[in-house]
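User: Could you write out the 3D structure of this protein bound to coenzyme A? I've included everything you need below.
Assistant: Certainly. Input first, then the structure.
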Amino acid sequence: MEKMKIIINPQFHLREVTLEDAEELFLLTEDNREHLRAFLPWVDATQNVGDTRAFIASTSCDSVYSGKFALALIWEQKIVGMIDFHNGDHKNKSLEIGYWLSKSYNGKGLMTLACKSLIDYAFRETDANRIIVRCAVNNPKSQAIPNRLGLIQEGIEREANWINGLFVNLYRNSVLRSEWKF
Ligand SMILES: CC(C)(COP(=O)(O)OP(=O)(O)OC[C@H]1O[C@@H](n2cnc3c(N)ncnc32)[C@H](O)[C@@H]1OP(=O)(O)O)[C@@H](O)C(=O)NCCC(=O)NCCS
């Protein structure tokens, strides 16, 4: 079957991850441990390439509601980060987006563009009606992405994540199909 791919421009696309990506993705995780672990609970649990392989094997692009619809951000042929749909709720046509970007590629607008393209895809190609982005209140760089894309901040989920021994409050942002500007 053809791999899921969203082309953004000649230098940049999103692509389904496969087991062949395991080594590259694990090395990127290794290089970014300190940058990622403050916000992403899976980082400390990823200790070797086998853990990355197990993660890839658990993903699926068969449906946006599949659980872990995970795409790599490919910038000039290299993996520079990941974006996904998770917590898919088909009954209520709702999806949540998660993302991370290698530190060296921060500050260029790549994740904002990836996020916009993934939301475009969901509203064009699927029956999703509501897309959520949740960001820790102490993660302004992440919260800037839904802000830039015009998502509505619904409120704060109190102590919604347990990360590195601490409870963290999360902003919950969302956009509805009826509001999205392609
Ligand atoms: C959160 C994270 C993805 C943000 O990365 P980022 O590079 O700031 O986000 P973008 O790629 O959208 O780039 C935006 C930055 O590029 C700048 N930029 C340059 N050109 C731009 C353009 N054309 N469009 C938008 N922004 C642009 C913006 O001004 C902004 O920089 P600033 O923060 O100095 O103002 C990244 O820091 C990360 O992975 N952090 C760790 C993991 C994490 O927190 N994940 C999210 C959990 S909810």
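The two ends are 28 Å apart (CA to CA).
User: Perfect, thank you.
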